[in-house]
Input
Amino acid sequence: MPTFQIIEEKPVAMAQVKDSLEKIKERDKELNFRAGKTQEYMGVFVEMDAGKAAQLLEKLKALNIPRVKEEHLIKFVDLLPASPEEIKLILQGSPITISKENVEKIVEAITEFKK
Output
């Protein structure tokens, strides 16, 4: 039995997963059971396409907020929080704190993108 080795772990936005699944479906004509269920989930919960998600991620990265990692930014892109309270809820599971000014910058960037 072959052994697998993880080479790299990288967070991916749900919009990118949805786009990848669509490309795989075009290539293979159908998806396996798990991929099909994942595509159904993405169809319900993903609000934007992969291009817009990538643009928003770049805009959030450009804010250069200290202590916020790419995985947090991906969660912001996936969930599109509309208020500072929602951002605090997303970050609640992480041992980081962000200043009110930076939280407002994140909310502002996301609301600009939602319009």
